[in-house]
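Lecture 7 notes: from sequence to structure.
We start with the chain below.
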Amino acid sequence: MELKTEPVEATPGLRGAINRHPLVSGGVVLVVAIASLSLALKPAPKPQAYFTVDDGQTFFEAPAQVPPFTYHGREAVRAVVYSCDGGKTKFVAYLLRHPPEEKAAAEAILKRGGRMPPGEVKRPGEVEWATPFDPSKLKNVHGKAGFERARAAGKRYDEIINTKCKDGGTPTIINPG
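Predicted structure tokens for the same chain:
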């Protein structure tokens, strides 16, 4: 028995080229599929942040993580870096860390890709860390004096994080990368 094949009619354009060269067309599809898959499986770069081990005198870039953590044998905290001249000069406006009782929760939020809770802040050179005013934590505060201390700490926190340039202008936050 003899098989008869009909000649393929020459179709112009891309469709015709695909019909005339099925092996080449299949190879191109395979290469595009492999390239797409390899790009999809490539791990996303870890977000970076600035940190300091010397109270903001210097800062370094590292993968974002919940501070404090140990870096070369020293305690590292987040350094929030700003500029008042378009990035020509940078300065550490304030430091940020999470108290031990909040660190595990902050790490879980960061791992899920969520926004990290505020933590404690201080300016370089200061000794005391300020916490945000959080009414949900007032159950441990007793009396008006305790409430006023919590509110004052929250006010100080707000003053620290609302950094201003010396001329009164608004600085630009500088992120790594």
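Points to note: The chain has a mean pLDDT of 81. The longest strand covers residues 74-83.
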